[in-house]
Structures are given as C-alpha cells and as structure tokens.
Write a structure and sequence with these properties.
- The protein is α/β, with parallel strands linked by helices.
- The chain has 2 domains: 3-35 and 258-347, Alpha-Beta Complex (Aspartate Aminotransferase, domain 1); 55-255, Type I PLP-dependent aspartate aminotransferase-like (Major domain) (Aspartate Aminotransferase, domain 2), CATH 3.40.640.10.
- It is 35% helix and 15% strand.
- It is built from 12 helices and 13 strands.
- The strands form 3 sheets. The protein has a 7-stranded mixed beta sheet with strand order 2-8-7-6-5-3-4, sandwiched between helices.
- Strand 3 (96-99), helix 5 (106-114) and strand 4 (117-120) form a beta-alpha-beta unit.
- Helix 4 (79-89) runs parallel beside helix 5.
- The longest helix has 24 residues, at 256-279.
- The structure holds pyridoxal-5'-phosphate.
Length: 355
C-alpha cells in the first residue's frame, strides 16, 4: 500500500488548480497571468522572524484602501484569505460555497480542499456575463456560508456595480458571507467596496498587490472585513505567513513615489486595453473582444487553438479559456507594454499557417 492510501481519497481524486505559471511552456512575452509588465525592486532584513501582521504594512495598506487597520488581514496573496475564509466558515461535508462561473478557479479549489460543498449559479452569458443576482438569492440555502462575486470578473473582464453588491450583502446578512474579489478593481471605473467591508458585517472585500501594483512575485494580498472576521483569520493563519523580503518590497511599493508611478501605469494599461480592444477586431480570426474593466481582454476566435499556437510561435504566451463554460472559443490576453501589445497584433495580423 502506498503512503497515499492514508490520505483523504477525495483529495487524491481532485484536479489541482492549474496556474498560468504552471501551464505556460516558454516564450519571451508573458501575457498569460494578468501581471504588470514592469518589475519594481525589493530588499529585506531576513535573519529574524517577521512580524505576523506587520503594523507598518497594516498602516500603509489601510491608507491605500481608505479603511481602519483593524479591518485588515494581510495574507500570502489574496489566495490565502480565500483558503482561510473557506476553512473558517465551511464545515467539511456540511457547508457550501456559491460560485458564479466562468470565474476565478481558486474559489472551487479552496472549497474542494476543505471538503466544502459547491453550488454554481452561472453568469448570464446572454447579458454580457452579468451576475445573476436573483439566481444567487434563490440558490442560497441553510448550508451556504460563502457567496463569491469577482468584480471585475476574471476571466470575462466585466464588473458588477458596487451598489448591487452592497444590496446583495444586505440580503445575505445573517445567512452567508459575501466575498467580493476586487483583484482588478484598480483598472475599473467602478469604486471599490473596501470602505464598506464589515458594514454589513458579512461583507468581505479582497484586494491584492499582485496586479495593478506589479508585485505578483511578492505574494501580498488583503482581506478587508469586520474586525471579528479578521480576528478569526488571524487565529487560524500560519505562524509567520509573510516573508520579510515581501514585507519590505510591499513597503517600498507603497511609498508615495511608487504609488504615483503605479497610478501612471494603471492609466497606461487602461489606455493600452482600449487600444487593443479597438485594434483586435481587425486581426485574423477574431470574432469578438469582450469589453473589460481589468488588465486583460477575453477574445473569441474562429480557431482559438490555432491562434494560440500562432501567438506562441511569435513568443507570445496567452491563456486558453476553452475549458470555461461560455468561453469555449476564447483566449485571455493580458495587457502588456505597448511594444508587447504590438507583438500580439503583429503575430495575429500575419495570418500564416501553423505547422
Ligand atoms: C490574480 C487573482 C487573485 C489572486 O491574486 P494573489 O496573487 O493571490 O493576490 C485573486 N482573485 C482573482 C480574481 C485573480 O485574478
């Protein structure tokens, strides 16, 4: 008998989360993980254990998000609070999370690892992948503990208005958490719900430094919630979740100068996104470019696999969306620098056969 015979059988049978970094083979231009194309710099004091929730970083993030530090949990990316919230609120085999696909895969993975049940209420494809509020409310039952809403949504790029989410949180009060994942909110014209997190007390907002702030490699994300939810997350977190070099890098990236640079780069990404949105429909095989409030575009192609190979041959790595419901003809293209985006257009314009 293998030692794995001792492990939980449902985990052995489970398909793991497949990250962009694991999927991509090779290439020069990385447009498959919605990262910033610019690399800020980092250092750290690493002979001591780090502070588990560093007060200076809490203060800096509280300033960035316009909230009180007592409402913040800092994690290893916002992936960690997704995992901790699932473990804190969902009893294995009993409680459920509600997910609206096509959306970010980690909500389901965290539920599976915890042994929580999953309900799905698909986004409304015929209405631009709008969140189905009535469907969500109808599907919530006594076992539901967490309802996820991703805005702007990965991988479709569309947003849900903050007022709609606030009303949903009110409806769900005393029944379930509403976890609003704002990983891409900096690129959106909508306001963040960060300042409303915890009011009502079931409203949780996730933010991250991985996308707009260019720190995907640093792994710093934040849950903003009622102080009692934050206390529970701190109770079950790893002893020293945040590496010192990551704390130091995040502090650097939140200096006033760095924040001004980040603002400028967000503006550049948004301008490039609209340029690409206008230019891509003229490229070979493009059927539709979904409008996006984020730093990526979901693009429907006549032959998505062939276009993926065509881009790969030009050294451009994008992400396949073909396994997502309603996106079986689509690729997701992150917005890079102007030169990188031009490489996408050039690769697609050259409508050559792929061996
Ligand atoms: C990228 C992403 C995250 C996770 O980011 P971290 O790097 O773990 O902070 C969370 N939610 C969505 C929707 C994302 O696309």
């Amino acid at each position: 008998m293998s030692v794995l015979g001792l492990a939980r059988p449902e985990l052995l049978a489970m398909a793991p989360y497949s990250s962009a970094r694991m999927e991509a083979a090779s290439g020069d231009i990385w447009l498959n993980a919605n990262e910033s194309p610019w690399n800020p710099i980092a250092v750290g004091r690493i002979n001591r254990y780090p502070e588990p929730q560093p007060p200076l970083l809490l203060t800096a993030l509280a300033g960035l998000y316009g909230v009180d530090a007592s409402h913040l949990f800092i994690g290893r990316g916002s992936d960690e609070p997704i995992d901790l919230l699932t473990r804190a609120f969902c009893r294995a085999g009993t409680d459920a999370v509600l997910i609206s696909p096509p959306t970010f895969g980690m909500y389901a993975v965290a539920a599976q690892i915890q042994g929580a049940k999953q309900r799905t209420v698909p986004l409304q494809r015929e209405h631009g992948f709008m969140l189905d509020i009535d469907g969500v409310l109808a599907a919530v039952d006594a076992s539901t503990r967490i309802v996820y809403a991703c805005t702007p949504n990965n991988p479709t790029g569309n947003s849900t208005a903050p007022a709609v989410l606030l009303a949903l949180a009110e409806c769900l009060r005393d029944r379930a958490l509403l976890v609003v994942d704002e990983a891409y909110i900096e690129f959106s014209s909508h306001d963040s719900l960060a300042t409303r997190a915890g009011t009502p007390d079931n409203l949780v907002v996730l933010r991250t430094l991985s996308k707009a702030h260019g720190l995907a490699g640093v792994r710093i994300g934040t849950a903003i919630a009622a102080p009692e939810v934050i206390a529970l997350l701190r109770q079950i977190m790893a002893p020293y979740p945040l590496p010192e070099p990551s704390i130091a890098a995040a502090m650097q990236a939140l200096s006033q100068d760095a924040r001004l640079q980040t603002q400028a780069r967000i503006g550049e990404v948004c301008r490039e996104r609209e340029r690409m949105r206008s230019a891509l429909p003229g490229c070979a095989g493009v059927r539709e470019v979904l409008s996006s409030d984020a730093n990526f575009l979901a693009v429907r192609f006549d032959h998505p696999e062939r276009r993926y190979q065509q881009l790969a041959q030009a050294g451009v790595i994008v992400r396949k969306l073909m396994k997502y419901p309603g996106l079986d003809d689509a690729l997701r293209i992150s917005i890079g620098t102007a030169d990188e985006n031009n490489a996408v257009l050039a690769a697609l314009a050259a409508d050559r056969e792929v061996a």
